[in-house]
Every structure is written in C-alpha cells, then in structure tokens.
Design goal:
By secondary structure, this protein is an all-alpha fold. The chain has two domains: 70 residues; 64 residues, 434 Repressor (Amino-terminal Domain). Helices cover 79% and strands 0% of the residues. The chain is rod-shaped.
Length: 146
Amino acid sequence: MNIAVALKSEISRVSRKEMRAEFQTLKKVTTKLRADNAELKRRLLELEKAIKLLSKAAGSGRARNSTAKEAGAEKSVERFSAKGIAAQRKRLGLSAADMGKLIGVSGATVYLWEKGQTRPRPTQMTGISAVRQMGRRDARSKLDES
C-alpha cells in the first residue's frame, strides 16, 4: 500500500509541475492579447474622436484641408467659394445652364452654389477645377461639342 500511495503522490507532483509550465505559457499569451486589445481600444477611441472632429469641420470646409494635411497628400486640395464660381462664370461669359453643362450639373445647381446655399460634392469639384483651366474659346468649343 505504501508503494501505491508513493506512486500516486509522485504522479500528482509531476503532473502539477507540467501543468504549471503549460499554464505559464498560456498566461503570457493571455497577458499579451489583453495588452493588444487595450491598445486597439485606445486607438479606436482616438479615431472616433478624429471622425467626430472631421464631421463637425465638414460643414465649414475645413475637413478636406485637415485630412489632406494629416495624410500628407501630395495633390493640391480643391477649394470652393461661391464668389469664385460666379466670377469664373462671368469670366467665361457663360450662363448658369452652360456652366452646369460643362461641370455636369444643372443650371439651378450652379445658382445655388453661387448664392452659397449649397456646396459641390467632391466628384463635382473635379469638373469645377477642369472649368477653371479653360478659357472662353475652350469653353465654347466644349459646349458646341455636346
């Protein structure tokens, strides 16, 4: 009976020793994963704050400029001003409807931009920048083509 008790206690001791080693590695992995999880949560909160700031700034037009600066964008940021659209249209000698055809929008949309009641979408800004590069002859020939 003494041999059975001794053998049983030795087996228990060895198994505890092996289990302790296994648990140590699992504990290290778990600790690392928890630290990574906490870091990801912190980054998520920072990004959510940045999104809130950018969405607030979007109404005033600062969002495009700040995101371009943060991202280190190499291409220039397209600007928009209601007076600039009106001046551009007058410089080219176009009606609002003709200006809208060049950009790809309606004449009413151009009027709303000029009044400052609405702002162009980013996709429309490419059309506006293309019109800025045109002269009177280019604008007329483009309108005659369509």
